[in-house]
Each structure stands twice: as C-alpha cells, then as structure tokens.
Amino acid sequence: MIELLQQSPPLATGTALVFGLLVGSFLNVVIYRVPKMMELEWEAQAAEMRGETPEQNAQFNLMTPGSSCPQCNHKITALENIPVLSWLALRGKCRACRAGIAARYPIVEAFTGLLSALAIWHFGFTVAGLGAVLLGFYLISLTGIDLDTQLLPDSMTLPLIWLGLIFNLWGTYASLNDAVIGAIAGYLILWSIYWLFKLVTGKEGMGYGDFKLLAALGAWFGWQALPAIVLLSSLVGAVIGIGLIVLAKRGREVPMPFGPYLAGAGLLTLYFRDPINAFIGIA
What we know:
10 helices; mainly alpha
C-alpha cells in the first residue's frame, strides 16, 4: 500500500484529502474540548490548594462523552457526523431540535482536508509530506483554540517543538543544528519583545503561548525562517487589526490573538519559503 501511494501521486493526494476531512472532524472536538479540559484541571488544582476535595465531575476528555447537540443533548450519530456532507444535508441544523450548527465545523473539516492534500501533492508521500500534514493539524487546532480563548495550550505547543526537532534529525526541513537554534531564538525573540513592550507601556502585549509557538516554528524550519515568519505574521496582524478597528468598530483595547497569524505565516513558510526569503532579501 505504501509503495502504491508513493508511485501514484493522484491516489496519495486523494487519500490525504479523505483522511484530512476525517481528522478535521476530530480537530473540531480538540478545539472545543481542550480549553474545557484545561479549565476543569485548573479548578481541581485550585480546590486542592484551598485544601478542598475536588469535585468528581463526569469523565470529560477528547473521547468521552460522545458528541451531542449543546441545545437539546441529541447524540450525534455516525451518519450525522460525516465531514462537510452531513452539515450540508442537515442544512446546518440539528436534526432533533433544528438549532443552528456553526459553519465553522465544516470549514475546519474542509480546510484540514485541502491542507492535507496540498501537503502530499507538494512533498509527495514522503517523510516531509507526512510531517507537513501533521504540522497542519497542529496549526489548525491551535488557531481555533486561540481564536476562541486566546490560549495556546502547553499540551500542544511543547510537543510541536519536539516534533520539529525529531523531523529535523534527518534534516527534513532544516539541519538539526539550525532547528535547535531556531527553537531557542524563536522563543527569545517574542520573549524580548514582550518585556520591552511591558517596560515601555506597562501592559502585556502577548502571551507566553506565542513564544512557544514561534519556538516550535523555529524548530521545524530553522532559525533562518524566523525573520520572514515574524514579518509576515506582524504585517497580517496589523492589517487585520486596523481593518477590524476601522470597519468593525472594534475597540483598540480589545485584545487580539497573535497565534493565528503565526500559524498562517508558518504555513506560508512551509510552501513558499524560498520566494518569501528572496522577496524580503534573506539568503
């Protein structure tokens, strides 16, 4: 089967598309449940610090309980959980109570499928291709969580750093030496900006999760990619931020997550690293 996928790019790309759609459905669960799991853990830790016995809540993780409608608790069946198609067939509504189902669910599924197909089409059914698929899964999940909660969980950013270093043991995207320096430099760049901004303004401009996400991207692509990633994410963030203030009347004091911009810059670097570096004058 592996040889067949390696020898047939169309088959490998199609397989990646279907696999990505299925994983995209699971990523919706990750985006929704990981922050809830963190909140339950914090509450348990706070209770222990107060000398109290933590409440024994029903089991809640990525697998349990099964997915259900938040309005009527209707259990989602397998036929109602087919990526994209089920949402279209149900016209974006719960089958039981007809409550609306957010369009973000099929969007995440479709984007995950397309991004997975792009990874295999671009890199082939290779270690680099599989790594690109995995990186896409992480970045999509982190983007969704950051948009919802302005959190970038350590349980996801720290493994992403190690995965980048592991893939680069064989120089998949960068030499191991460049990857290690990239992880260190990625963290220190935003850490330094954070403290400089705080010293000047007395405010916190970003969270520690952003430091770790840039460290992860440095581990995947090497330190040479960091200037382009920081520049791209900052430019896109500035443009969108100004647009929201001007067009959507968003207050300047309302914080904006930076993780999605870092994730987007990381994906652009994955596929267009050389043209981007040439454009901004980085060798």
